[in-house]
Amino acid sequence: MAKQDDLFKNVVSHAKEYGYIFPSSEIYDGLSAVYDYAQNGVELKKNIREYWWKSMVQMHENIVGIDAAIFMHPTTWKASGHVDAFNDPLIDNKDSKKRYRADVLVEEFREKINEKIQKDVDKAQAKFGEAFDEKQFRETNPNVVRRQQQIDEITVELTRVQEENDLEGFRQLIIDLGIVCPVSGTANWTEVRQFNLMFGTKLGASADSAMDLYLRPETAQGIFVNFLNVQKTGRMKIPFGIAQTGKAFRNEIVARQFIFRMREFEQMEMQFFVKPGEEMKWYEYWKETRLKWHLSLGLGRKNYRFHDHDKLAHYANAAADIEFDFPFGFKELEGIHSRTDFDLSSHEKYSGKKLQYFDTETNTSYVPYVVETSVGLDRMFLAVFSKSLQEETLEDGSTRTVLRLPSVLAPTKAAVLPLIKRDGLPEVAKQIVEDLKWDFNVAYDEKDAVGRRYRRQDALGTPFCITVDHQTLEDQTVTIRHRDTMEQQRVAIADLRNLINEDVSMRNWLMKMK
Question: Is-above-0.70 flag for pTM?
Fold first, then answer.
């Protein structure tokens, strides 16, 4: 746990030091769980968004995008269920005065048991090697069986108290498990109570006539209320999807873990409209497709896992999360949900307008079912950034900090460095920048010794460093250094564009999904 804490602290400090993320309003001591994306962070975030958009919209003929407004008619949130059901269970520790989500306390306790099981499995794997049968080990090892039984019992009770909204049962479960406050170390808990997560605001010129509104807690509803507009104007045939990226706002009980859980965040969502009865086929398709998208970035298969929901939302008949191994453990990165026809049917009811699809093949009208994929852009940023940040010991015993961002997402693709600041080298270097900047985001750096500049670009995550030296003046070649391997090669200036493009092209990266 201490090692995880240290890694996480390194991620937070590195993000600030190298211009990725700043605390918001820092000169006024900041604002809890609100962050600003800095000059490099905004580029990385933009690249992640574009990578998602290209794979989701541009690569699918039957998916289009929209950009719905943040403000929506207040009845939207009544129809969606957010006014009545968008709550989290809240509990306080009387000694530390700290506030927690009751369900998260139980889930984290359960995950610790699962981590103990995994340690036993890993030890047995190392001991027996290729002869190891993990399935048999999990079914027969007494410690693993006992712990798995405990996990199953916790899951059953957690699901019950959530589904029955049994707040007293929720508190009793926390007490029975011996869960204590991480700060005070005591189990002196308050009662559990429900807390609505929506931010309220007003629309109007005066207080007397102003309409009560909400800042949207998700982007999906903007898609649903525009379903018919998009379908008709785009002449879309089922199955088809509508994608959107944008800001959402939630008054989180416990906003913590850096940008993992914020009050203002960005989502990348796609709602896929299908014929009733075919939703499970498409649910499985999107589970597989979305995992392939994540794996295409090369962060490692072992860092992802599926988690099927124990408790389904009021609108779903199936739901799973793609979880990622963040510095603080496996947590939700993306959700794939089969939302049935709840959303469109509910908006039909509250609006009095038909939101149905006319199927010309069967000559019938029906309310489509929906399969949703929803990934947090900020969480995606944290996943990529935290897994890319590495400390490396070199052959000479020295160390370097390197941010091994997938090159397709790196804010700056190449840094151009004149070996020295005279003899015409800066002029040639700046000309290379001028030529490459039409295709890539490139930087110019002439400060400090070239070795220190390499280290700085490593820490920034720049995939390539291009060094201009005296030989460049003679034969129009430069040295290009690769961030991950530190290998250097001599190439012609004329070949730089193709060489860089081969490594950073979205086409080449997305082809890995094939």
Answer: yes
